Amino acid sequence: MLIIGELINTSRKLIREAVEKKDGEYIKQVAKAQEEAGATYIDVNCGTCIETEVETMEWLVDNILQVTSLPLCIDSPNPLALQAGLKKAANGKLMINSITFETPRWNAVLPLVKEFNTKIIALCIDDGGMPKTNEDRIRIADSIITKLTGEGINIDDIYIDPLIKPVSAGQKNGIEVLQAIQNIMEGHPGVHTTCGLSNISYSLPARKVLNTLFMVQTMARGMDSYIMDPTNKEMRRALIASQTLLGQDRFSRKFIKAFREGLYD
Ligand code: THG
């Protein structure tokens, strides 16, 4: 299970303020907190800083590397920001978030995957845009996996993001993703799937409950990575218990350890 801590994102008010004030201490604190909570990667996203994305990415990466040895997941649609972040962070097995099957983005990001030998998150989007049906989603995923492996990218480095749409916008948006995960992972043994969890609950109340349960449901179909807040206790409780129930916890060791540490009190 690969947990990508999502908290260093300038769409969050406290991160935006820290960037504006050049408060590196706050960034370091959030990086450290995610590592201590069990994150395996730290996402870095400053996409809201449109004019200054490249410099902001460099500043964030510099600060994060001062307190953690976790590898980073550089999160931007902008190839220049990706390149700047990757250059600064060139240690460990880095991750790029993300490539799509849109021709210009594909052509700009694929060389970075090769140059920096990274893991790669691929969104199910092509030149026709976002998938309209679940068949579109599965077809785009198939094309991306075939093309990436054809380019010499190891299947173990590929993380397909099926793109989560809110259930409030379409009753079947949750169940379709579950079917897509199963289809994609069965069709391409060894490939990984990931997603951001907060879209599923957009515009509904009690969002954390919906996000947590959707994580558990997607895990049961094989999803093996999440872009999430690792410091959220309800989420961590559900994550570990679900791993135990799904045969991902030898001798229930993780569950017992978490219990002893008070996670279920
Ligand atoms: N897939 C991929 N990458 C992604 C996403 C995805 N990167 C960005 C995003 N989605 C995941 N990251 C975040 C980071 C922070 C928050 C949500 C998703 C967050 N949001 C607060 C909320 O929703 O309540 C609002 C901001 C605030 O706290 O002020 O914290 O899907 N590949």
From TrEMBL:
Domain Pterin-binding per the UniProt entry, residue ranges: 1-265
Taxonomic superkingdom: Bacteria
Keywords carried by this UniProt record: Cobalamin, Cobalt, Metal-binding, Methyltransferase, Transferase
Membrane-crossing residue ranges in chain numbering: none
Gene Ontology, cellular component aspect: cytosol
EC number: 2.1.1.13
Keyword Endoplasmic reticulum attached: no
One Pfam family linked to the record: Pterin_bind
MF (Gene Ontology): cobalamin binding; metal ion binding; methionine synthase activity
Enzyme class (EC, first level): transferase
GO biological process: one example: methylation
Claim: Phosphoprotein is one of the keywords in the record: no
Family: Belongs to the vitamin-B12 dependent methionine synthase family.
Protein name: Methionine synthase
